[in-house]
Amino acid sequence: MPLFHTQNKAFHTNGLIKRRKFILKTINLQTKIKRVGSKALIISNTNELVRVKPERVVYVESDGNYSTMVLHDRTEHLFTMNLAHCQQLIEKQLGKEAETFIRIGKQLIVNRAYIYKINISRQQLVMADMALNDAFTLQASKEALKQLKTYIESTIGKEAKL
Q1: Backbone region of residue 14 per phi and psi (left: phi > 0; alpha: psi in -120 to 50; beta: other values)
Q2: CA of 2: how far to CAs of 7, 10, 46, in Å?
Q3: Would you say 102 and 151 are in contact if contact means Cβ atoms under 8 Å apart?
Q4: Predicted confidence (pLDDT) at residue 100 exceeds the cutoff of 70
Q5: Residues 32-51: pLDDT tens digits?
Q6: In sequence order, what are the residues at sequence separation of 6 or more whose Cβ sits closer than 8 angstroms to the Cβ of residue 39?
Q7: Per-residue model confidence (pLDDT) at position 158
Q8: What average pLDDT does the segment 44-70 reach?
Q9: What is the DSSP string of the chain?
Q10: For 102, which of 13, 53, 115, 131 is 20 to 30 Å away at the CA?
Q11: Quick one: average pLDDT of 119-143?
Q12: What's the first-to-final CA gap in the chain, in angstroms?
């Protein structure tokens, strides 16, 4: 038995018959949500699907074929994909808004809005939200941090346009 039956006015789900009006209301609601402009980053694997607003993502860290997405409330989501694939998903789903994220070296993608401090000599990148009293300290190579520092300095004044 098919899950949805578009020819008739009803569809079957687990033996229950539901009216087509419900489907149309759901579709209209989803259309309205998309019009508001609330883009969401959707990442899924075989066991879970995560839908999150991009501004909640602080960073994505990779360990080989596994990537961990860390949110501002310290929630972590582990995915079986390498960082390059994760980067492609972000660029594909967010379009122009993907510029919010910066790839640092081989292991990190960070949200530029959370960059608080770059310490090249200690090889540290401190990520913090100015509204929260919480910080994330990440390790990166000196070369990657130098490039990030140079990039951030070159974009001073241009961030208002983003």
Answers
A1: left
A2: 12, 11, 23
A3: yes
A4: yes
A5: 333 334 689 999 888 889 99
A6: 53, 54, 93, 94, 95, 97
A7: 67
A8: 92
A9: --S--SSSSEEEETTEEEEHHHHHHHHHHHHHHHHHT---EEEE-SS-EEEE-GGGEEEEEEETTEEEEEETTS-EEEESS-HHHHHHHHHHHHGGGGGGEEEETTTEEEEGGGEEEEETTTTEEEEE-TTSS-EEEEE--HHHHHHHHHHHHHTTTTGGG-
A10: 131
A11: 89
A12: 49
**Positive/negative CA dihedral, 91, 94, 97, 101:** negative
**Percent of the chain having pLDDT more than 90?**
62
pLDDT tens-digit series, residues 10-21: 444 555 444 444
As a whole number, mean pLDDT of residues 108-135 equals: 90
Using CA of residue 137, residue 65, residue 103, residue 40, what is the dihedral sign?
A: negative
Residue with tokens 């990520």: 127
Contacts of 83 (CB under 8 A, 6+ apart): 60, 62, 67, 103, 106, 107, 108, 109
